[in-house]
Structures are given as structure tokens and as C-alpha cells.
Design brief:
The chain is mainly beta. A hairpin with a 2-residue loop joins strand 7 and strand 8. The chain is 0% helix and 43% strand. A 4-stranded antiparallel sheet has the order 4-11-9-6, with no helix packed on it. The protein has a 4-stranded antiparallel sheet with strand order 8-7-5-10, with no helix packed on it. Strands 1-2-3 form a 3-stranded antiparallel sheet, with no helix packed on it. The radius of gyration is 20 Å and the shape is elongated. It starts with a strand and ends with a strand. The chain has 2 domains: 30 residues, no CATH class; 68 residues, RNA polymerase II/Efflux pump adaptor protein, barrel-sandwich hybrid domain (OB fold (Dihydrolipoamide Acetyltransferase, E2P)).
Amino acid sequence: MKYIVVLNGKKYEVEVEKGEATAVYTGPAEAAAPAPAPAAAAPVQEAPKAAPAPVAAGDGDPIKCPMPGTILDVRCNVGASVKEGDVLFILEAMKMENEIVAPRAGTITSVTVNKGNTVQTDQVIATIK
């Protein structure tokens, strides 16, 4: 799905896929043609209320990889609310599967790795706010 997001007065096109979000700046988004004026007899509708501002991507505390290895599974998404101890990633290191858990309760603001990625010690793999 593609969305147009306005941030600090600039329009950005954002494409979202299931389980993964990718933001790509494609230049100024084209504004949709204005809707035709409603007929005089049509009732005036109240504008929908704006959603609360989302947390900025990558804003918050980094979650770092404790050892080098390969990401076997990603169990969190950007925007997900997590509790302390929730499993976020499965990391294979030294032929063992290791759970990387949420250090505290919060909202995931970025996920910087995908399943199959090789990671290094202290590499930021997500952020939580």
C-alpha cells in the first residue's frame, strides 16, 4: 500500500508491505485533484479528527546485538508495543539459537535487520521508545 505522509510541511510517498515498512522519498508527492463542490442540498460533514502523531522512525533507545551471528527470525514490527522480556529476534550464533528480548516496555520505532542478515556485536538491530 502506498501512502502520502506530510512531515514538516513536505510530502513523502511511503510504501508499506506486510511485515516490513520501507520509506522512499520520491520527491514532492502529487496532490490529488480537489473534489468537486458538494451539491447545495448535501449536508456538511465534519472533518475527521487527525490521528496522533506517530513516533519518529529510529527515535528512542538502541537495541544492540549481543554477539555476531545470523538473524533467523524477526518477531517485531515498527509501531509494535512490546513488554519487557518479549522476544524480538532469534539469533543463530555458534550453532545455537539465542533469543534477543525487549530490554523494557515500549514501542518499536525501527527494525534495521531482516531474516537471514548477518550481524555483528553491538550492531543496532532495532530501537525502542
